[in-house]
Design a protein that fits this description.
Arc Repressor Mutant, subunit A; two-stranded antiparallel ribbon; 50% helix
Length: 90
């Protein structure tokens, strides 16, 4: 029986939340590698990359022109637009 390499780098929900919180609190301060080394708990870099990819795909973070991780998710703005009757998702 073989194990998948992606399974060995699957982050837990707790890990994802830790990276999210750190990214939100330190938006625009660090590049990926520097951010990884300053997290409250260490993890494999491959796992960290998986979390970063997820956060980019879910539009919570973006990487700026300087390579720094920036928090872009705004739940209040999202709720505002979702609550408008004149707007709908197609």
């Amino acid at each position: 029986m073989t194990t998948s390499t992606s399974a060995s780098h699957s982050p837990t929900l707790e890990t994802i939340r830790m990276v999210e919180e750190f990214a939100r609190e330190h938006s625009g301060e660090y590049r990926r590698r520097a951010m990884w080394s300053r997290l409250p708990r260490q993890m494999m870099y491959q796992t960290f990359k998986t979390v970063i990819e997820y956060l980019i795909e879910s539009n919570k973070i973006a990487i700026d022109a300087g390579g720094k991780v920036c928090w872009i998710f705004d739940p209040d703005l999202t709720r505002h637009y979702l609550g408008r009757d004149d707007l709908r998702i197609r």
